[in-house]
Automatic annotation (TrEMBL):
Presence of the UniProt keyword Flavoprotein in the record: no
SUPFAM superfamilies, sorted: Metallo-hydrolase/oxidoreductase
Signal found in the keyword field: yes
Annotated signal sequence range: 1-20
Coiled-coil spans in chain: none
Name of the protein described by the UniProt record: Zn-dependent hydrolase
GO function term, MF aspect, one: hydrolase activity
Keywords, ordered alphabetically: Hydrolase, Signal
A Pfam family recorded for this sequence: Lactamase_B_3
Amino acid sequence: MRLASAVAATLALMPALVGAQESGRTPSHCVALAGGMPLLQKASWRDPVPDETVRLSFVNHATYLIQTARGLNLATDYTGRLGVDLIPDVVTMNNAHSTHFTANPDPRIPHVLPGWEEDGSPADRYLDLGEILIRNVPTTTRDFRGGERDFGNSIFIFEAAGLCIGHLGHLHHEPTPEQYAMIGRLDVVMVPVDGGLTLDHPTLIRALQRFRSSIVLPMHWFGEGTLQRFLDGMSGSFRTSRPGTSELEVSMRSLPAEPTVIVLEPRWLR
């Protein structure tokens, strides 16, 4: 059964590979291994992004700004606020809590991708903008009464510059084998690390090891204590770096040789 699921997941990803070839986008390594030199570049979100590179800026809570070399701007778990009047080309949202979405996204935003459907069916998002491909894997969330809400969250995956970048949203359960197969390897992953409202730390760490991520970017942390507990749990298998900045430039060439947790400081754009 697991083999069949993995084969089905691989077939489902084939359009992404074909699309990459047709658009000129460097194919990502979501379903392959990645290596690289332990070199990470820091820059301002206003600077041009170098070729074959992606810039990630930690804005606030679960919102990251993702920028590409040709000038695309994408905001994750978008709440309607970034700190400046920047209109992203794409926003993704989840609605487990109001801090992960807005009910009134700016109408100037070309592509708004909610991670849920109002009728409870699984969201199916697949947006190929040439330089970047965005897709999702729906997951189940808990409700406030202790019950389950099927497909209430989406893990969004961004494929650009040969990288596979994941944002786990408001993840409540470890992915199933089928979901792991659909997600693939995540070179870079943005993870909620509060350990209570979202996935508990032992389960989250197990998932991150399964993703074989080179870079883990914490988000959704409520104070230094919560963050430090997560870092302590990761210390056995991941290095930790805290460069003291909010932005990070990543390329296939600059992925660290050892899996690394990089703590970016949340800061509104300015």
